[in-house]
Amino acid sequence: MMNERMKQRRKELGLTQPAVAKAIGLTKATVSLWESGSTSPKGENLHALAKVLNCTPEYLLYGETAKKPESNAEWAGGFETWDSDSPLGDDEVEIPFYMEVELAAGAGIAEAREYFGPKLRFAKSTLKRQGVNASHAACVKVAGNSMEPVLPHGSTVGVDTSHTEITDGKMYAINHDGMLRVKMLYKLPGGGIRLRSYNTEEWKDENISFEQLKNIKIIGKVFWYSVLI
After folding, report:
1. Which of 10, 151, 170, 215 is most buried, with most CB under 10 Å away?
2. Could you give all domains of the chain from N- to C-terminal order, each with its CATH number?
């Protein structure tokens, strides 16, 4: 159970409930309710708690990967946009930020040669650590609740459009009949794929046969995400 993992992890680190609450900016009563299972952290609070407990949101939710991975994706907190007149720092690079889901799901995200809309800035060292070439990266917004609580509605993800080969369990942005979706992908026997959401209560696994794959284009692998509430 999530509350039990939370409590165990806190004790492993020698932290008290008041210390955890103070680090997140909440009350001890809130943390106490989380650990009792009466309520559970979501969105920004889930990510903040995972950071304090030196683990991933996935570990708290499902018991997967107790330590921070070198991973599929890393949470990087908030972000800002800049216009073309703002000077770049020595270790900065700009990546297109497609704010409209409809635009992101179309041909533009992967094929556009020129982009004049908003951009996000990344440290070159961050991209290098993830093995991402800035010229093949783009950021898009996530719509809907299928990836909650890890990716709430309105979250932003960074996508490496050069990485379309499926690694089981990793997050990918896909164009599914003209709709942008972010899902965990798994290969299936016979050439099909499985689409999996974090919100499994409302969104069951979708098995896509080899014949149905003509309706899906893998845009790229998610290498970064940011959550604002």
Report:
1. 151
2. 2-62 (1.10.260.40), 81-226 (2.10.109.10)
